[in-house]
Specification:
Distance between the termini: 37 Å
Number of strands: 3
Number of helices: 3
Helix content: 10-25%
């Protein structure tokens, strides 16, 4: 049997996007020197991006010619960039915006404002 893979219309469209950016932002941003899987504690209380401006990210991405942007919504370190009731390790347990901040929402809104396709990376 001869099988020739044919991309779906969505897969073909993705190929046309050509260039995008991946934003790896989260708790580790506030723990300089920590490495993946190093086992060092990273308490949520250190997460406080008071100058966070996702529009700055997406405007720069768009100016560079990007068609899409991907944000790490939850990294394998377990920290969720949105307030979730399913974890006690998320932006809800931080001083940022009194625990009411939502990086994912701000990122998605910024992408939409700058006409970028949105992607989210979630590591279980």
């Amino acid at each position: 049997m001869n099988f020739t893979p044919i991309p779906t219309p969505q897969q073909a469209a993705f190929q046309d996007w050509a260039f995008g950016l991946f934003f790896h932002f989260g708790i580790r941003t506030f723990y300089e020197g920590h490495r993946d899987w190093d086992g060092k504690p990273m308490p949520a209380g250190a997460f406080n991006p008071t100058a966070l401006d996702c529009r700055q990210w997406t405007a720069a991405a768009r100016a560079a010619g990007a068609k899409y942007a991907v944000l790490v919504a939850k990294h394998h370190d377990g920290f969720a960039n949105w307030p979730t009731r399913y974890s006690d390790y998320s932006v809800a347990q931080t001083p940022w915006k009194g625990g009411k901040g939502d990086v994912v929402r701000e990122f998605v809104e910024a992408c939409r404002a700058d006409n970028l396709k949105v992607g989210l990376y979630y590591s279980p």
